[in-house]
Write a structure and sequence with these properties.
Radius of gyration: 23 Å
Family: Belongs to the RecF family.
Subcellular location: Cytoplasm
GO cellular component, one term: cytoplasm
Distance between the termini: 22 Å
InterPro entries: DNA-binding_RecF, DNA-binding_RecF_CS, P-loop_NTPase, RecF/RecN/SMC_N, RecF_2
Number of domains: 2
CATH topology of the largest domain: Glutathione S-transferase Yfyf (Class Pi), Chain A, domain 2
Structural class: alpha/beta
Pfam families: SMC_N (PF02463)
Length: 397
C-alpha cells in the first residue's frame, strides 16, 4: 500500500496543497516550522483518526477556516482508493471512501500507517496512559471493530464513575448500591474483550520488538514486554516472557476474575469515587537487560526501544493486512540518532513499500532514503532549484 497523491485544504498552515508522492522512500525536507510534519500528520490521521501531536482536531484546522479537508489517493497493486475526511469546527467530522460516506472511525479499515516521531520517546519514558493508547491504537488498526468496543468501554467507565461519585455524595452504603451491578456487567464484558485483544497484540509484537531493537541498536539488550493487569493486583506478574505470556488469555477466566475483583473493591471504589480496576488501569511493562526500561534505559537505548515498538507495529500490521504494507512514517527522527543508528534504521525500513521521512537537514538522512525528495517552504511545495514557493494547483477538495 502506498499514497500516490495528497490534497490539503485549510489543514494546519496549508491553505491549499497538492503533493504527488512516489512509492519507496520519500524525503520531505525544509526548515523547521515550514509544514513538513503537517503533511505526514494528515496522512497519519487517516490511519488512526487522531493526531500524534495534539489531542483535539480543532488545532488541525487552519486559523480563520471553519473546516479542513484532506484527500488521499491510495494504491495497492491494481486497486486504487480515494480517501477523504473533513474536520469541522462545529458539527461532526465527515469521511468518505470513493465518494461513499463512511463513519470517521471506520477510516482505519481502508488505510494503514505507522508513524514514529520524537514524541514517541514517551512510550518508554512516559506514563502508563501513553503505552495503553499505543496498544489500543494498534488494536483498532488490526481490527477496526474495536474502535466501537473501546468507545463503549470508555462511556461505561465514565457513567460508572459518575454513579460512584453520586453515591459517595449521598452516603449510600456499598452493599446497597445495586444500580452499579448493571454497569459492572457491561464493564466486565467490554473490558475483558479489550484485555484479550491487547494480550494477543503483545504476543504478536514480542518477537518483532526483539528483532527490531537488535536491528536499530546493533546489539541485543534483552528486550522483554508484557501486560500487568490491574485485576491481578499491583504486585501481579507482568508476564514478560514466561510460559503464561505465550499462552492465550482465557476470556472466561478473565471475565470471572474481573467480576470478583470489582465486588471485592466496591467499598474502596465508593470511598474514592473512581473505578480502580480494569484495562484503563493496566500497564504495558517494558524491560531492558532485566531492568524496567522506564527509569533505567539510557537516552540512546530509549530511542532504540521506542523505534523498535513502532517497527514491530509495522511488521504486525503487514502480517495482518490483505492490502500490503502499512505506510511507514519517520517524522524528524534522523536528527536525534547517531550515524550508526541512522544507517541501521535505514537498513530496517528499506523493505517497506513506502517510507515517508521528514527532516530539516537532508544530510541527516542516509543517501539511499533520499531518492525522492520533496522540498517544503512556507506551507507550499517548492521546486528543487526554486528560491520561492510555486503556487499549488487548484485542489479538488
Amino acid at each position: 500500500m502506498h499514497v500516490t497523491h495528497l490534497s490539503l485544504a485549510d489543514f494546519r498552515n496549508y491553505a491549499r496543497a497538492e503533493v504527488e508522492i512516489a512509492p519507496g522512500p520519500v524525503l520531505f525536507v525544509g526548515r523547521n516550522g515550514q509544514g513538513k510534519t503537517n503533511l505526514v500528520e494528515a496522512i497519519g490521521y487517516a490511519s488512526t483518526v487522531s493526531s500524534h501531536r495534539v489531542s483535539t482536531d480543532q488545532a488541525l484546522i487552519r486559523f480563520g477556516a471553519e473546516s479542513a479537508i484532506v484527500r488521499m489517493r491510495v494504491q495497492h497493486d491494481d486497486r486504487a482508493l480515494v480517501i477523504e475526511f473533513q474536520l469541522n469546527r462545529t458539527g461532526a467530522n465527515k469521511a468518505q471512501v470513493n465518494r461513499g460516506a463512511i463513519r470517521v472511525r471506520e477510516l482505519p479499515r481502508y488505510f494503514s500507517s505507522v508513524l514514529f516521531a520524537p514524541e514517541d520517546l514517551a512510550l518508554v519514558r512516559g506514563e502508563p496512559g501513553g503505552r495503553r493508547a499505543f496498544l489500543d491504537t494498534l488494536v483498532v488498526q488490526r481490527n477496526p471493530r474495536f474502535s466501537g468496543v473501546i468507545a463503549d468501554y470508555e462511556r461505561v467507565l465514565r457513567q460508572r464513575n459518575t454513579l460512584l461519585k453520586s453515591a459517595r455524595a449521598s452516603r449510600v452504603p456499598a452493599d446497597a448500591l445495586t444500580t452499579l451491578d448493571v454497569w459492572d456487567d457491561r464493564l466486565v464484558e467490554l473490558g475483558t474483550e479489550l484485555m484479550v485483544a491487547r494480550w494477543q497484540l503483545v504476543a504478536a509484537l514480542r518477537p518483532h520488538v526483539a528483532a527490531a531493537y537488535r536491528a536499530v541498536a546493533g546489539d541485543d539488550h534483552r528486550t522483554r514486554l508484557g501486560l500487568q493487569h490491574s485485576i491481578e493486583g499491583d504486585a501481579a506478574d507482568p508476564h514478560l516472557d514466561d510460559e503464561t505470556a505465550h499462552a492465550p488469555l482465557d476470556p472466561e477466566v478473565t471475565r470471572e476474575r474481573f467480576r470478583a475483583v470489582l465486588a471485592e473493591r466496591r467499598r474502596a471504589e465508593l470511598e474514592r469515587a473512581v473505578t480502580l480496576v480494569g484495562p484503563h488501569r493496566d500497564e504495558l511493562v517494558l524491560e531492558l537487560n532485566g531492568l524496567p526500561a522506564r527509569g533505567y534505559a539510557s537516552h540512546g537505548e530509549s530511542w532504540s526501544y521506542a523505534l523498535a515498538l513502532k517497527l514491530a507495529s509495522a511488521h504486525v500490521l503487514r502480517a495482518d493486512s490483505v492490502a500490503g504494507d502499512p505506510v511507514l512514517v519517520l517524522d524528524d527522527v534522523f536528527a536525534e540518532l547517531d550515524e550508526g543508528r541512522r544507517e541501521r534504521l535505514a537498513d530496517a525500513v528499506q523493505g517497506f513499500e513506502q517510507v515517508l521521512i521528514t527532516a530539516a537537514v537532508g544530510g541527516d538522512v542516509p543517501d539511499r532514503l533520499r531518492a525522492t525528495t520533496v522540498r517544503i517552504a512556507g506551507g507550499a511545495v517548492v521546486e528543487d532549484d526554486a528560491t520561492e514557493p510555486t503556487a499549488p494547483p487548484e485542489s479538488e477538495a
